[in-house]
Specification:
Blueprint: H1 7-23, H2 29-46, H3 60-82, H4 84-98
Helix pairs in contact: 1-2, 1-4, 2-3, 3-4
Length: 104
Amino acid sequence: MATIGSKKQEEKIKVFATIAKSSFPEIDELAIKGAFRFAAKAAIEKSAYSEWSEVAKKPASERRRFFDGLLEESRGRLEQLLGKNDAAVLLKKIRIENETFLKD
């Protein structure tokens, strides 16, 4: 099961880690990337996909659903890193940013 996916998926993780770092300068950017990679792995295991790159071929609505699941999988680790309130703020920002990746 490939968790590190295509170039675009890695770009997405980098963008989200940059958002986290700009919002919370004290956070370890690698820890954020790791949280999203572990979340991607968990989301894949709960989905019908065998790897993350398969999701990229789906319509925007399906990619959004998968990503919402990925964010929920990342919530616990992000709450450990940031606290519950800051994790919620970050997830909201990332959900908004993700819409730029959903253009068909």
